[in-house]
Amino acid sequence: MDRFVILSGCSGGGKSTLLEALRLRGHHVVEEPGRRIVTQELESGGSALPWEDLTAFLRRAIDMSLADRDAATKRAGIVFFDRGLIDAASALQHITGEPALASYGQKHRYNSHVFLTPPWPEIYVGDHERRHDLSAGIAEYDRLCADYPKLGYGLHILPKIDVDARADYVLSALGLL
Questions:
Q1: Helix %, strand %, coil % for the chain, to 5?
Q2: Where in the numbering of this chain does the NadR/Ttd14 AAA domain appear (predicted)?
Q3: Which residues are paired to 8 by β-bridges?
Q4: In this structure, are residues 8 and 111 in contact, taking their beta carbons and an 8 Å threshold?
């Protein structure tokens, strides 16, 4: 859907901060499925965690992403997604070899502009929900840089600038400024 815009890229690269800036400017946003799943699993004692059962975690991320897309159809205007379906499908395919990108990536389209946060070691911070190190984030970033174009998406690598300038960059690229 042309009004669904993906913000993706390297973990710890400023996606959530950018998403909040876009929300404060009046845009609809959808928070990262992975963080929501980790929070739910930690609170319930579940095991669908990336460091315990990565495949179960990714399948939950796909299901949540599909539900997020469905809920977003009820919102007017642009909706920004912090990661989502394509990221989860890319990871599932990488881990299991299943053709998840073809299954989900072609059927459920987003705006052709995808915005990626590059690795930014100076701001990377691990936390209770992000337990992997920067090198794992960089490997994921490299995979996404290859997988999104395979699905016909144009990549915009976000410059390492302050959050308001980044928000302006995204909105300008979408013709919304």
A1: 50, 10, 40
A2: 5-166
A3: 116
A4: no
C-alpha distance from residue 16 to each of 6, 24, 66, 149, 160 (Å): 12, 12, 20, 23, 14
Displacement of CA 123 from its chain's centroid (Å): 18
Q: pTM of the full predicted structure?
A: 0.91
Mean pLDDT by 10 residues, the chain (177 residues): 89 87 97 91 92 94 96 96 93 95 91 90 54 71 95 95 96 93
Domain interval for residue 96: 4-173
Instruction: Give the end-to-end CA distance of the chain in Å, rounded to a whole number.
Output: 20
DSSP 47: -
112 φψ region: left (φ > 0), alpha (ψ -120 to 50), beta (else): alpha
Q: Which two tokens stand for residue 115?
A: 């915005």
Helices (H) and strands (E) counted in the chain, each on its own, are: 7, 5
Q: Which two tokens stand for residue 24?
A: 């404060």
**Cβ within 8 Å of residue 28, ≥6 positions away:** 72, 75, 77, 78, 79, 80
CATH number at residue 99: 3.40.50.300
Q: Is 114 helix (H, G, I), strand (E, B) or coil?
A: strand
The DSSP 8-state label assigned to residue 153 in this structure reads P
